[in-house]
Automatic annotation (TrEMBL):
The chain crosses the membrane at residues 30-47. Its EC number is 3.1.4.-. Keywords: Hydrolase, Membrane, Transmembrane, Transmembrane helix. This is Glycerophosphodiester phosphodiesterase family protein. Residues 1-23 are annotated as: Disordered. It comes from Micromonospora harpali. PROSITE patterns: GP_PDE. Residues 80-345 form the GP-PDE domain. The keyword Transmembrane helix applies.
Length: 347
Protein backbone atom coordinates (compact mmCIF):
# COMPACT_ATOMS: atom_id res chain seq x y z
CA UNK A 1 0.00 0.00 0.00
CA UNK A 2 2.91 2.29 0.82
CA UNK A 3 4.65 1.63 -2.48
CA UNK A 4 1.39 2.04 -4.34
CA UNK A 5 0.71 5.31 -2.57
CA UNK A 6 4.26 6.56 -3.13
CA UNK A 7 4.05 5.70 -6.78
CA UNK A 8 0.75 7.49 -7.08
CA UNK A 9 2.14 10.62 -5.43
CA UNK A 10 5.15 10.59 -7.71
CA UNK A 11 2.99 10.23 -10.79
CA UNK A 12 0.71 13.03 -9.64
CA UNK A 13 3.60 15.44 -9.16
CA UNK A 14 5.42 14.67 -12.44
CA UNK A 15 3.11 16.64 -14.80
CA UNK A 16 3.16 19.72 -12.59
CA UNK A 17 6.95 19.76 -12.79
CA UNK A 18 6.76 19.91 -16.62
CA UNK A 19 3.95 22.44 -17.07
CA UNK A 20 6.06 25.58 -16.43
CA UNK A 21 8.48 24.56 -19.18
CA UNK A 22 5.69 23.92 -21.65
CA UNK A 23 4.14 27.26 -20.77
CA UNK A 24 7.38 29.11 -21.32
CA UNK A 25 7.88 27.45 -24.73
CA UNK A 26 4.29 28.29 -25.72
CA UNK A 27 4.79 31.93 -24.71
CA UNK A 28 8.05 32.12 -26.68
CA UNK A 29 6.36 30.70 -29.77
CA UNK A 30 3.46 33.15 -29.43
CA UNK A 31 5.91 36.05 -29.03
CA UNK A 32 7.82 34.97 -32.13
CA UNK A 33 4.58 34.63 -34.13
CA UNK A 34 3.42 38.07 -33.02
CA UNK A 35 6.81 39.55 -33.91
CA UNK A 36 6.64 37.99 -37.37
CA UNK A 37 3.12 39.37 -37.88
CA UNK A 38 4.20 42.83 -36.72
CA UNK A 39 7.28 42.79 -38.96
CA UNK A 40 5.22 41.62 -41.93
CA UNK A 41 2.61 44.32 -41.26
CA UNK A 42 5.31 46.97 -40.95
CA UNK A 43 6.92 45.77 -44.19
CA UNK A 44 3.57 45.92 -45.97
CA UNK A 45 2.96 49.43 -44.67
CA UNK A 46 6.42 50.71 -45.55
CA UNK A 47 6.33 49.09 -48.98
CA UNK A 48 2.86 50.42 -49.85
CA UNK A 49 2.61 53.72 -48.02
CA UNK A 50 2.34 56.82 -50.17
CA UNK A 51 2.91 58.96 -47.07
CA UNK A 52 6.35 57.51 -46.40
CA UNK A 53 7.24 57.70 -50.10
CA UNK A 54 6.74 61.47 -50.05
CA UNK A 55 4.99 63.69 -52.54
CA UNK A 56 5.97 62.85 -56.12
CA UNK A 57 7.00 65.63 -58.51
CA UNK A 58 4.51 67.17 -60.94
CA UNK A 59 0.77 67.46 -60.74
CA UNK A 60 -2.31 65.73 -62.16
CA UNK A 61 -3.18 65.61 -65.84
CA UNK A 62 -6.71 66.68 -66.75
CA UNK A 63 -9.19 64.77 -68.87
CA UNK A 64 -12.01 66.85 -70.38
CA UNK A 65 -15.02 64.59 -70.86
CA UNK A 66 -16.69 65.31 -74.24
CA UNK A 67 -14.63 68.48 -74.50
CA UNK A 68 -16.20 71.47 -72.79
CA UNK A 69 -19.84 70.45 -72.53
CA UNK A 70 -23.10 71.45 -70.89
CA UNK A 71 -23.53 69.72 -67.53
CA UNK A 72 -26.74 68.37 -66.03
CA UNK A 73 -28.32 67.32 -62.76
CA UNK A 74 -27.34 63.73 -61.97
CA UNK A 75 -30.15 63.13 -59.46
CA UNK A 76 -32.35 60.29 -60.67
CA UNK A 77 -30.50 59.81 -63.98
CA UNK A 78 -30.91 56.39 -65.63
CA UNK A 79 -29.69 54.95 -68.90
CA UNK A 80 -32.90 56.17 -70.56
CA UNK A 81 -32.80 59.76 -69.24
CA UNK A 82 -32.58 62.54 -71.82
CA UNK A 83 -29.89 64.63 -70.16
CA UNK A 84 -30.21 67.49 -72.67
CA UNK A 85 -33.62 68.21 -71.15
CA UNK A 86 -32.13 68.80 -67.67
CA UNK A 87 -28.99 70.85 -68.22
CA UNK A 88 -27.85 73.46 -65.75
CA UNK A 89 -28.32 77.09 -66.83
CA UNK A 90 -25.62 77.50 -69.52
CA UNK A 91 -22.37 79.20 -68.47
CA UNK A 92 -20.60 78.78 -71.83
CA UNK A 93 -21.70 78.39 -75.47
CA UNK A 94 -20.23 74.94 -76.26
CA UNK A 95 -21.95 71.69 -77.20
CA UNK A 96 -20.39 68.35 -76.38
CA UNK A 97 -18.41 66.36 -78.93
CA UNK A 98 -17.92 69.26 -81.35
CA UNK A 99 -14.60 70.59 -82.60
CA UNK A 100 -15.33 73.93 -80.95
CA UNK A 101 -15.88 72.26 -77.56
CA UNK A 102 -12.61 70.34 -77.90
CA UNK A 103 -10.67 73.47 -78.85
CA UNK A 104 -12.13 75.26 -75.82
CA UNK A 105 -11.19 72.34 -73.55
CA UNK A 106 -7.57 72.31 -74.66
CA UNK A 107 -7.41 76.10 -74.40
CA UNK A 108 -8.76 75.88 -70.83
CA UNK A 109 -5.99 73.51 -69.76
CA UNK A 110 -6.99 69.97 -70.73
CA UNK A 111 -4.19 67.46 -71.29
CA UNK A 112 -6.54 64.89 -72.76
CA UNK A 113 -9.95 65.21 -74.42
CA UNK A 114 -12.53 62.41 -74.57
CA UNK A 115 -15.08 62.02 -77.35
CA UNK A 116 -17.66 59.44 -78.47
CA UNK A 117 -17.72 57.46 -81.72
CA UNK A 118 -20.39 55.56 -83.67
CA UNK A 119 -20.44 54.08 -87.17
CA UNK A 120 -22.92 55.60 -89.64
CA UNK A 121 -25.02 53.76 -92.22
CA UNK A 122 -22.41 54.55 -94.87
CA UNK A 123 -19.53 53.31 -92.74
CA UNK A 124 -18.16 56.63 -91.46
CA UNK A 125 -17.00 57.20 -87.89
CA UNK A 126 -19.22 59.98 -86.54
CA UNK A 127 -18.64 61.73 -83.20
CA UNK A 128 -21.89 61.50 -81.21
CA UNK A 129 -22.84 60.25 -77.76
CA UNK A 130 -26.47 59.19 -77.47
CA UNK A 131 -28.01 55.85 -78.43
CA UNK A 132 -30.74 57.76 -80.29
CA UNK A 133 -30.89 61.17 -81.96
CA UNK A 134 -34.18 62.52 -80.64
CA UNK A 135 -32.99 63.68 -77.21
CA UNK A 136 -30.34 66.14 -78.34
CA UNK A 137 -31.16 66.80 -81.99
CA UNK A 138 -34.11 67.33 -84.32
CA UNK A 139 -33.58 63.87 -85.80
CA UNK A 140 -34.90 60.40 -84.93
CA UNK A 141 -33.48 56.90 -84.89
CA UNK A 142 -29.84 55.97 -84.37
CA UNK A 143 -26.57 57.11 -85.87
CA UNK A 144 -26.27 53.74 -87.61
CA UNK A 145 -29.55 54.33 -89.45
CA UNK A 146 -28.32 57.54 -91.11
CA UNK A 147 -25.60 58.56 -93.53
CA UNK A 148 -22.98 61.08 -92.50
CA UNK A 149 -24.55 63.68 -94.81
CA UNK A 150 -27.92 63.24 -93.12
CA UNK A 151 -26.37 63.58 -89.68
CA UNK A 152 -24.55 66.74 -90.72
CA UNK A 153 -27.91 68.34 -91.44
CA UNK A 154 -29.18 67.87 -87.90
CA UNK A 155 -29.24 70.60 -85.26
CA UNK A 156 -27.09 69.23 -82.43
CA UNK A 157 -28.38 71.89 -80.03
CA UNK A 158 -32.09 71.39 -80.71
CA UNK A 159 -33.17 69.62 -77.50
CA UNK A 160 -31.18 71.43 -74.80
CA UNK A 161 -33.23 73.14 -72.12
CA UNK A 162 -32.60 74.15 -68.51
CA UNK A 163 -36.13 75.28 -67.63
CA UNK A 164 -38.34 72.35 -68.50
CA UNK A 165 -38.80 73.29 -72.16
CA UNK A 166 -39.76 76.93 -71.80
CA UNK A 167 -36.61 78.01 -73.64
CA UNK A 168 -34.06 76.22 -75.84
CA UNK A 169 -30.87 78.31 -75.74
CA UNK A 170 -28.94 76.26 -78.32
CA UNK A 171 -31.72 75.57 -80.82
CA UNK A 172 -30.61 76.48 -84.35
CA UNK A 173 -26.94 76.76 -83.32
CA UNK A 174 -25.81 73.18 -83.88
CA UNK A 175 -26.45 72.55 -87.59
CA UNK A 176 -23.45 71.05 -89.35
CA UNK A 177 -21.35 70.74 -86.18
CA UNK A 178 -21.15 66.94 -86.04
CA UNK A 179 -17.53 65.91 -86.79
CA UNK A 180 -15.91 62.65 -87.86
CA UNK A 181 -12.99 60.94 -86.15
CA UNK A 182 -10.78 61.87 -89.10
CA UNK A 183 -11.62 65.53 -88.58
CA UNK A 184 -10.85 65.38 -84.86
CA UNK A 185 -7.49 63.74 -85.54
CA UNK A 186 -6.66 66.35 -88.17
CA UNK A 187 -7.72 69.24 -85.92
CA UNK A 188 -5.56 68.07 -83.01
CA UNK A 189 -2.61 66.27 -84.63
CA UNK A 190 -0.34 66.39 -81.59
CA UNK A 191 -2.80 66.21 -78.69
CA UNK A 192 -3.81 63.30 -76.44
CA UNK A 193 -7.26 61.89 -77.21
CA UNK A 194 -9.51 59.32 -75.55
CA UNK A 195 -11.91 57.67 -77.99
CA UNK A 196 -15.07 56.08 -76.64
CA UNK A 197 -16.68 53.31 -78.69
CA UNK A 198 -20.35 53.86 -77.86
CA UNK A 199 -21.90 50.85 -79.59
CA UNK A 200 -21.12 47.41 -78.18
CA UNK A 201 -20.43 45.57 -81.43
CA UNK A 202 -17.24 44.05 -82.79
CA UNK A 203 -17.79 45.86 -86.10
CA UNK A 204 -17.48 49.23 -84.34
CA UNK A 205 -14.12 48.32 -82.85
CA UNK A 206 -12.85 46.90 -86.12
CA UNK A 207 -13.85 50.02 -88.05
CA UNK A 208 -11.96 52.26 -85.64
CA UNK A 209 -8.94 49.96 -85.71
CA UNK A 210 -8.88 50.07 -89.51
CA UNK A 211 -8.78 53.86 -89.42
CA UNK A 212 -6.16 54.21 -86.69
CA UNK A 213 -3.97 51.59 -88.37
CA UNK A 214 -3.34 54.14 -91.14
CA UNK A 215 -1.68 56.51 -88.64
CA UNK A 216 2.03 56.45 -87.79
CA UNK A 217 3.01 54.71 -84.57
CA UNK A 218 3.99 58.00 -82.96
CA UNK A 219 0.43 59.27 -83.41
CA UNK A 220 -1.19 56.06 -82.17
CA UNK A 221 0.87 56.39 -79.00
CA UNK A 222 -1.14 59.52 -78.13
CA UNK A 223 -4.51 57.74 -78.41
CA UNK A 224 -6.49 55.57 -76.00
CA UNK A 225 -9.66 53.61 -76.81
CA UNK A 226 -12.32 52.46 -74.36
CA UNK A 227 -15.88 51.15 -74.37
CA UNK A 228 -17.71 47.83 -74.01
CA UNK A 229 -15.81 44.57 -73.74
CA UNK A 230 -16.84 43.27 -77.17
CA UNK A 231 -16.07 46.44 -79.13
CA UNK A 232 -12.77 47.07 -77.34
CA UNK A 233 -11.77 43.41 -77.61
CA UNK A 234 -12.29 43.52 -81.38
CA UNK A 235 -10.31 46.75 -81.61
CA UNK A 236 -7.41 45.42 -79.55
CA UNK A 237 -7.25 42.19 -81.54
CA UNK A 238 -6.56 44.24 -84.68
CA UNK A 239 -4.44 46.99 -83.14
CA UNK A 240 -2.82 45.73 -79.92
CA UNK A 241 -0.25 48.54 -79.73
CA UNK A 242 -2.90 51.17 -78.81
CA UNK A 243 -3.69 51.58 -75.10
CA UNK A 244 -7.23 50.36 -74.30
CA UNK A 245 -9.62 49.83 -71.41
CA UNK A 246 -13.04 48.34 -70.69
CA UNK A 247 -14.86 47.03 -67.63
CA UNK A 248 -13.39 43.55 -68.11
CA UNK A 249 -9.87 44.91 -68.60
CA UNK A 250 -10.10 47.01 -65.44
CA UNK A 251 -11.63 44.15 -63.41
CA UNK A 252 -8.93 41.70 -64.55
CA UNK A 253 -6.22 44.20 -63.63
CA UNK A 254 -7.65 45.04 -60.21
CA UNK A 255 -8.21 41.42 -59.20
CA UNK A 256 -4.70 40.42 -60.25
CA UNK A 257 -3.15 43.46 -58.57
CA UNK A 258 -5.01 42.87 -55.30
CA UNK A 259 -3.45 39.39 -55.21
CA UNK A 260 0.18 40.40 -55.78
CA UNK A 261 0.39 44.18 -55.61
CA UNK A 262 1.49 44.13 -51.97
CA UNK A 263 4.90 43.01 -53.26
CA UNK A 264 5.14 46.00 -55.61
CA UNK A 265 4.75 43.75 -58.65
CA UNK A 266 2.41 44.89 -61.45
CA UNK A 267 0.77 41.89 -63.18
CA UNK A 268 0.57 41.58 -66.95
CA UNK A 269 -3.19 42.25 -66.81
CA UNK A 270 -2.36 45.82 -65.76
CA UNK A 271 0.28 46.63 -68.38
CA UNK A 272 -0.27 49.10 -71.25
CA UNK A 273 -3.77 49.98 -70.07
CA UNK A 274 -5.80 52.92 -68.84
CA UNK A 275 -7.74 52.63 -65.61
CA UNK A 276 -10.77 54.82 -64.84
CA UNK A 277 -11.10 54.30 -61.09
CA UNK A 278 -13.70 55.79 -58.77
CA UNK A 279 -12.01 56.68 -55.50
CA UNK A 280 -14.11 54.12 -53.62
CA UNK A 281 -12.36 51.33 -55.56
CA UNK A 282 -8.98 53.01 -55.78
CA UNK A 283 -8.63 53.00 -52.00
CA UNK A 284 -8.53 49.20 -52.12
CA UNK A 285 -5.41 49.16 -54.27
CA UNK A 286 -1.99 48.48 -52.73
CA UNK A 287 0.00 51.72 -52.55
CA UNK A 288 -3.01 53.99 -53.12
CA UNK A 289 -2.82 56.70 -54.16
CA UNK A 290 0.63 57.77 -55.32
CA UNK A 291 2.68 54.57 -55.13
CA UNK A 292 -0.09 52.85 -57.05
CA UNK A 293 -0.01 55.54 -59.75
CA UNK A 294 3.80 55.35 -59.96
CA UNK A 295 3.77 51.57 -60.29
CA UNK A 296 1.17 51.70 -63.03
CA UNK A 297 3.07 54.44 -64.84
CA UNK A 298 6.16 52.23 -64.89
CA UNK A 299 3.98 49.54 -66.52
CA UNK A 300 2.83 52.05 -69.21
CA UNK A 301 -0.62 52.28 -67.63
CA UNK A 302 -2.40 55.53 -66.79
CA UNK A 303 -4.72 55.93 -63.82
CA UNK A 304 -7.58 58.42 -64.02
CA UNK A 305 -9.64 59.08 -60.91
CA UNK A 306 -13.40 59.39 -61.44
CA UNK A 307 -15.78 61.04 -59.00
CA UNK A 308 -18.54 59.31 -57.08
CA UNK A 309 -19.38 55.73 -58.05
CA UNK A 310 -18.23 56.14 -61.63
CA UNK A 311 -21.75 55.92 -63.01
CA UNK A 312 -22.94 58.41 -65.63
CA UNK A 313 -19.51 60.01 -66.09
CA UNK A 314 -19.36 61.81 -62.76
CA UNK A 315 -16.47 64.23 -62.77
CA UNK A 316 -14.57 66.55 -60.48
CA UNK A 317 -16.42 69.66 -61.54
CA UNK A 318 -16.24 72.27 -58.77
CA UNK A 319 -14.17 73.42 -55.79
CA UNK A 320 -15.65 70.87 -53.39
CA UNK A 321 -14.88 68.07 -55.83
CA UNK A 322 -11.30 69.26 -56.25
CA UNK A 323 -10.82 69.18 -52.47
CA UNK A 324 -11.65 65.45 -52.59
CA UNK A 325 -8.83 64.60 -55.02
CA UNK A 326 -6.12 62.60 -53.19
CA UNK A 327 -3.29 64.75 -51.83
CA UNK A 328 -0.31 64.90 -54.15
CA UNK A 329 -2.22 63.15 -56.92
CA UNK A 330 -0.22 62.83 -60.17
CA UNK A 331 -2.61 60.61 -62.10
CA UNK A 332 -5.48 61.78 -64.29
CA UNK A 333 -8.56 63.71 -63.18
CA UNK A 334 -11.88 63.24 -65.00
CA UNK A 335 -13.86 66.47 -65.33
CA UNK A 336 -16.91 67.78 -67.16
CA UNK A 337 -15.94 71.38 -66.39
CA UNK A 338 -12.34 71.83 -67.43
CA UNK A 339 -12.89 75.60 -67.46
CA UNK A 340 -13.68 75.53 -63.73
CA UNK A 341 -11.31 72.83 -62.53
CA UNK A 342 -8.13 73.72 -64.40
CA UNK A 343 -7.70 77.08 -62.63
CA UNK A 344 -8.40 75.45 -59.26
CA UNK A 345 -5.52 73.07 -59.94
CA UNK A 346 -3.17 75.86 -60.93
CA UNK A 347 -3.49 75.66 -64.73
Amino acid sequence: MTERGTGSAASDSAPSDKRPGRGRRWRRRLAIALAVVLLATAALYVGNSSTLAGRPPGGPFLLAHRGLAQTFDLAGVTNDTCTAERIHPPEHPYLENTLASMRAAFAAGADLVEFDVQVTRDGRLAVFHDATLQCRTDGTGTVGEHTLAELRGLDLGYGYTSDGGRTFPFRGKGVGLLPTVEEVLAEFPDRELLIHLKVERAAEGEALADLLATLPQQRRDTLTVYGGDVAVGAFAARLPDVRVTSKKIMKDCMVAYLAVGWTGHVPDACRHRQLHLPQRYGRLMWGWPNRFVSRMREADTRVIVVNGSGEFSEGFDDADDVDAIPAGWTGGVWTNRIDVVAPLLGR
